[in-house]
Amino acid sequence: MLPATEHLIIAPILIPFFAGAVMLIYDDRRRRAKLAIGLVSAVALLLVAVELLNRSKGNALSGGNDIGFYLLGNWLVPFGIVLVIDRLSAMMLVLTAVLAIPALIYSAAGWHRQGQHFHSMFQFLLMGLNGAFLTGDLFNLFVFFEVLLAASYGLLLHGSGQLRVRAGLHYIAINLAASLLFLIGVSLIYGVTGTLNMAQLSVQVAALQSADRALLHAAAAMLGIAFLVKAGIWPLSFWLPTAYMAGAAPVAAMFAIMTKVGIYVILRLSMLVFGAAGGASAGFGADVLTAAGMATVAFGLLGVLASQGLGRMAAHLVLVSSGTMLAVTGFALAGGGAPMLAGALYYMVGSTLATGALFLLIEPMSREEGGIAALLALTADAYGLDPAEDDAQPEVGLAIPGTLTILGLCFGACLLVLAGLPPLAGFVGKVAIFQGILDAGGGMPSAAGWAFVALLLVSGLASIIGLVRIGIQTFWASDGVVPRVLALEIAPVVALIVMIVLMTTQAQDVLRYTDATARALHRPEIYAQGVMRTPRVEPAPAPANGDAAGDAP
Amino acid sequence: MEYVLSAAIGVLAASGIWLLLRPRTFQVIVGLCLLSYAVNLFIFSMGRLTVGVPPIMPKDGSVNPSAYADPVPQALILTAIVISFATTALFLVVMLVARGMTGTDHVDGKERD
Lengths: 553, 113
Fold this sequence. Notes:
The complex is a heterodimer.
Chain A (H helix, E strand, L loop, with lengths): L10 H15 L5 H27 L10 E4 L10 E4 L1 H21 L10 H17 L3 H19 L5 H32 L4 H7 L5 H22 L7 H8 L2 H25 L12 H21 L3 H24 L4 H28 L5 H12 L4 H4 L12 H17 L5 H14 L8 H30 L10 H19 L1 H15 L2 H9 L21
Antiparallel strand pairs in A: 1-2
Chain B lengths: L1 H19 L4 H21 L25 H32 L11
Helix pairs in contact in B: 1-2, 2-3
Subcellular location (chain B): Cell membrane
Keywords (chain B): Cell membrane, Membrane, Transmembrane, Transmembrane helix
Membrane topology (chain B): Multi-pass membrane protein
């Protein structure tokens, strides 16, 4: 029998699944009950994720014991599906939960009333995200991707309205096409190597015959395109600003982590298969990732400068952040070293929290201009919501004093993180990346390295210019009408910023964690051997006719 | 048989991609369906082509694997069919809503001038 604590690994998938399912029983008007269930689920997720994070830290750097495994259905490893929790997965789980709680609280201020089944879809999105971070099987990854995508389709359309339906139509079409590429890539990998298990793939890739290697590269490229579409890499990212802009505020905040799923998978798979264990395939795709990542940063910074509204600007800031991560992944794959990757992981956490906070700030900031507020009223009308039922006293709750001051301070904090200015987390992350690039291999960095450093600095400058322009318009050049902002709307933003401040004051601990994560990523054999050696659980003494093997997954 | 199957996959994929790039939502959804058929056939072919052999092996004893078809791609196809069916149905609903809201079936919600 497995000790009960080991079952914790599957909890991040099961908790939101059951929470979302239970909510479906309630009538849609009982939103308080649904909100309560959703919050309990999200807090439980956070606790579980922190516990898993502590566990994956272990005592040594990454001696095999730090990685946790969970065999679904107790099938032996290459045949069944295995869930794997290591440092990177645990970090992403914590990030998801940290972002989910503020988004849920924010939705309580009114957004969750704008359509049906908001809370259920939110939980299913969490389930898909957590599953994608945990699974160690390629096809299972596809299934969890579809779960999170299906939930995100519903969430993007939440609130309805012409703008959202049009953006949703494009978003769904693109993602359906990308999913088909995903399937082609997965099945081609199966055809070449005969396995869908990421760890076994990592072991087998060095021993492939040269005739099969080209096929494997083609499959990896197909698979890569599917993930790069989600990560929003440059020529494939034109859908992203419109979709992120159209989403309701709490949805857009959660979408800040959706691009990171694509990046997580690219990082995990490329380091596993084409990293040190890759044999003749080592470093495959590194140049493409570096070049396209840098192009994404350039596109994002031009977009930031060109945007008139804060929504479009925030979406382009997402592009800058994911472009940075992709370029760093490319450098790491080409042998850039662990310190740079460690800095990039730190930067990713900080920038995800900051973009999440910024997406939550957009609506309160532009409220006086009537932009989204008017849209909200319009969509509520189009949706046929009975105003007498839900909106008898619109914006019930505590309005905060000194609205503009608090909004301005929050906005300023987001600006500091996203532009990479001291003293907040963005600065620490960028410095760590620069340090990693400049120290790479003890010598001078390559031309690409210098170009990347220059691009990152320019993107910081562009973020300052763009965001300060919006800040001046909103806070200094406003016509004196102070928007009414509820405490429920500002508290989540403040909570996210407090998290960023904590990350900054505890930078040494966080950086130590990401450094160990990056070094573990550079040693794929630990992951692979750990997964391949996972023992089956001996069945408990079964009753005479008990079926010990369990059902097929 | 290889030629027939490759030709089928190629024709389906080519027509699917062409339709996917058309400006009408109905063409897009038919294109996606055709593409998903092509992908399903492709997954099937990744288990190697065999004729008249079962995918399920007897429970006991060692068997000659070449006398059996690979069951994994077949299971993958089943999953892929279910998922793409569901998402296509969802897409169809969004498509109808867009048609109702904008009054046109152009993917951008308005006719090109």
